[in-house]
Amino acid sequence: MPKFEEHCADCVRELGEPFEHVHRWLDELFAYVGSDHRPIRHNEKAIEKIRSMFGDRAAKAAEIHILADEGKIPQTTDKAFQLGMAFKPHIWQAYRLEYNLD
Questions:
Q1: Most exposed: 22, 47, 56, 74, by fewest CB within 10 Å?
Q2: Which domain holds residue 93?
């Protein structure tokens, strides 16, 4: 799992700027739920949310970050994602709040 500085360096190499705000937003929930933060903001919905907040290049930075952490872009429609959420109701609730699914 890359550190903040590594995520920024990856984006400088690929996009020409560090996109610190994107990396902070993606990992912001770590302070509250530890490594369980990833299902909430490390998925395709998070990339689209970043695109709406910060634009296309920031969305690409989010993709770079998520790929470095996860090895793929998790899809929230995948059975594995949904099953994982079923065993973590507090994370499921946070996810639903993040994307206004209630």
A1: 56
A2: 4-98
